[in-house]
Structures are given as structure tokens and as C-alpha cells.
Amino acid sequence: MKRGKNEPIELICLKCRYTEIVYLPIDDLPRCPKCNTPMSISELLDEGKSY
Description:
Layout: E1 8-12, E2 19-23, E3 40-44
Antiparallel strand pairs: 1-2, 1-3
């Protein structure tokens, strides 16, 4: 699968569980706006899901 330039990814704060969706490319992972902890990648949102 070829990856595009502006792919959505879901970030999560491992401390307070705050989630945020950002689009690649990003220079570095942002910090959580609630507790200022560095966020980590939770999921790549490149496959269409239906709930």
C-alpha cells in the first residue's frame, strides 16, 4: 500500500488518555494540551473503518 503525504493519524496521551487526530507530515509529536505530556501514535487512520 502506498502512503500519501497528508495521512491522518490518531495521537493519544498515555497519562490522561486525551486523543487528537493530526495529519502527516508533522515535525515532532505534540504535547497534550491537558497535562503537557508528550503524545504518542495510537493508530494510523488510512484504512476506512465503519462502526
